[in-house]
Amino acid sequence: MYHFADAEPDRSMKRFVPGPERQREFRDALGRFATGVTVVTTITDEGPVGITANSFSSVSLEPPIVLWSIGRHSRRFPAFERCERFAVHVLGADQIDLSRRFARSGDAFTGLEHDRNEDGVPLLRGCLSRFECERFAAHDGGDHVIMVARVNAASLANGEPLLFAAGGYGRFDRFV
Ligand SMILES: Cc1cc2nc3c(=O)[nH]c(=O)nc-3n(C[C@H](O)[C@H](O)[C@H](O)COP(=O)(O)O)c2cc1C
After folding, report:
1. How far is CA 53 from CA 1, 14, 15, 17, 164, in A?
2. Which amino acids bring their CB within 6 angstroms of ligand 1?
3. What Pfam families does this protein's entry cite (predicted)?
């Protein structure tokens, strides 16, 4: 894994055309962009489903709209592609376990205490913020589908965010 502290001060850049042979470098370049970490949850006929996602982004304040993208390769893709309602949970720095749990396959809800909203969408506890969403649009994004959603309810708590960059977890170190 790439460690920032080991990086030389040299900022000369390596330019390349992304393609099947350059996937590692392309992923590395994308990984220089630090993000927060979310878990997106929904309900299906087979029960609750969740997935760890760092593709979450704010889009519009009025109306309130957010987006995230789901990989077509994921076994959880059919559940999220169809769902009309879902909840996005922004994780705190103390929730790495939750991020790992929902990145793994399977029934991550087993043994996990959670609540449900009026639409039956699973709501996780102890997160920094939460957006209860209704599907607004879904766009083709290559090997992902971009899910655009209207936020019907937002929740907010205090705490330190969990960050993800260069394939690893970290915390926010404020400069100013
Ligand atoms: C920090 C982190 C962020 C992730 N972000 C996304 C994402 O935005 N979209 C996505 O489809 N998968 C994302 N994944 C991968 C999924 O959580 C999951 O591991 C993957 O879809 C494989 O699921 P499957 O085992 O059901 O096939 C992320 C994983 C991690 C650890």
Report:
1. 20, 28, 28, 26, 10
2. 37, 51-55, 68-71, 74-76, 99, 103, 105, 164
3. Flavin_Reduct
**Tens digit of each residue's pLDDT (9 = 90 or more) over 51-102:** 999 999 999 999 999 999 999 999 999 999 989 999 999 999 999 999 999 9
Cα-to-centroid distance, 52 and ligand 1 (Å): 5
Domains of the chain plus CATH, in order, are 20-163 (2.30.110.10)
**Closest by CA position to 86, among listed 119, 46, 125:** 119
The CA 41 to ligand 1 mean position distance, Å, reads 13
Top mutation candidate among 56, 68, 73, 74 for ligand 1, by most atoms within 8 Å of CB: 74
Counting from 1 in the atom list of ligand 1, the atom nearest the Cα of 102 is: 17
Report the pLDDT value the prediction gives residue 27, as an integer from 0 to 100: 96
Please list the residues that pair with 164 across neighbouring strands: 35, 169
The mean pLDDT value for 28-45 works out to 97
Cα(19)–Cα(24) distance, integer angstroms: 10
Residue with tokens 């997106």: 40
Mean pLDDT of the chain: 94
Q: What would the mean pLDDT of 110-121 be, rounded to a whole number?
A: 95
Mutation pick for ligand 1 pocket among 37, 40, 54 (CB with most ligand atoms within 8 Å):
54
